[in-house]
Amino acid sequence: CRMLWLVLALILALLDALFGRATAKTPLPENIPLVVATYAYPALDRQTAVTPLQNWLQQQTQRAVVIQVADDPAQLATWVARQEVDLAVPNLATYLKIRQQNPDARFIAVPKTHSPLIIKSQYRGSIAARGITSISELRNQLIGGRTIKVFAVFPDSTTGALLGLSQLRASLTESQFNQLQLHYAGSHELVVQQLNRHPVAVGILSANALSRLNHDRSLTELWRSGEIPFGPITCMPKRLACDELKLALARDPLASQQILLGLKRGWPEFEHTDSLSFHEHRVYSVLLDEYSGQSNADLAYRPAPAATTKHSGLSITQKSVGAR
After folding, report:
1. Which residues of 88-118 are buried (b: 16+ CB within 10 A; e: fewer)?
2. How far is residue 324's CA from residue 131's CA, in Å, rounded to a whole number?
3. How far is it, in rounded angstroms, from Cα 251 to Cα 194?
4. For residues 137 and 144, is the Cβ–Cβ distance under 8 A?
5. Using CA of residue 143, residue 308, residue 219, residue 44, what is the dihedral sign?
6. Is 287 helix (H, G, I), strand (E, B) or coil?
7. What average pLDDT does the chain have?
8. Residues 285, 188, 230, CA angle at the centre, nearest 5°?
9. Which of 208, 224, 210, 202 shows the shortest CA–CA distance to 318?
């Protein structure tokens, strides 16, 4: 009988060593590093930008941490779906995709500003054009089957594709929308270059980039979105205690500032931010609800709404503007 109890004790000890307690994280072999991942963008050193985040995670976990930079946001989302990433720095569209694929993914922090003298966020999308002065004129030029080129950044760019395509889809008939010839330029700067090479064309890009690059005011801004949130630092809970990490970073203002300074070197849209916010604003849940309802949001046609539309409780002002 004593031998039986000894055998049972050994079995229980082995099971505990293999699987851990119910509340413990799965042990990570020492030779497998944790991964901080983001996506590349032309002329920006995203690896250097997330190095402070890598250093902080390494200090917190006492594990080796490596940085991986995906070719584009879609590849980053694929890595996360394969459970190859522990901390991700995505754009907004990729964050929504990550949350859709893995509801357990955790919001850690997002850059913000406390200064009342600076616009809280200048992160907006624009539709610009050469040879077209308004959405109404775009409709008229499409009458009769004419095709018009539209230049966007890349498929999973929030301001450089998704917002503008959604607005064009909402502003045109289905047949007019299908007459647009979509081309992905690869960056906001290259969208402007393409517009400058064509007498009549439409571009989808960030409002910041348009203001910065439209030096001679030869491009007309046809539409500008309302303010949208940034993509947050995102934690995958398979190998990390995400809630504990979030609390530790929130309690360490020096580390938070170092991480923010790094991010600002790789994301020009963070220029006016001065701190990290650890509060997941309701707007993310609202956007996630809408994103989840549109699994092919960049392909599905939607009829034209009124000038201001409400999606899942979020009011998005759709502003038409003249030349700037």
Report:
1. bbbbbbbbbbbbeebeebbbbbbbbbeeeee
2. 14
3. 46
4. no
5. negative
6. helix
7. 82
8. 20
9. 224
**pTM to 2 decimals?**
0.70
Whole-angstrom distance, CA of residue 236 vs CA of residue 276: 19
Q: Given pLDDT bands bounded at 50, 70 and 90, which one contains residue 56? A: very high
Rounded to 5 degrees, what are φ and ψ at 65? -130, 130
What is the number of other CB atoms lying within 10 angstroms of the CB of residue 258?
16
* Bridge partner list, 125: 206
d(CA 109, CA 218): 38
Of residues 22 and 86, more confidence is placed in 86
> Is residue 239 within 8 Å of 20, Cβ to Cβ?
no
**How far are the Cα atoms of 21, 32, 175, 247, 249 from residue 244, in angstroms, in the given order?**
17, 21, 52, 5, 9
For the CA atoms of 226, 230, 236, 240, the dihedral, rounded to the nearest 10 degrees, stands at -140
Beta-strand relationship, 201-206 and 148-152: parallel
Taking alpha carbons only, the member of 136, 158, 137, 139 closest to residue 205 is 158
Residue 144, pLDDT score: 80
At 297, the amino acid letter reads A
Q: How far apart are CA 232 and CA 92, in angstroms?
A: 7
Residues 197, 108: Cα–Cα separation, whole Å: 42
What is d(CA 123, CA 91) in angstroms, rounded to the nearest whole number?
11
What does the DSSP assignment read for 11-45? HHHHHHHHH--TTSPPPPPTTS-EEEEEE-BTTB-
The burial of 299, by beta-carbon neighbours within 10 Å (0-12 exposed, 13-18 middle, 19 or more buried), is given as exposed
Dihedral over alpha carbons 176, 181, 182, 187 (to 10 degrees): -120
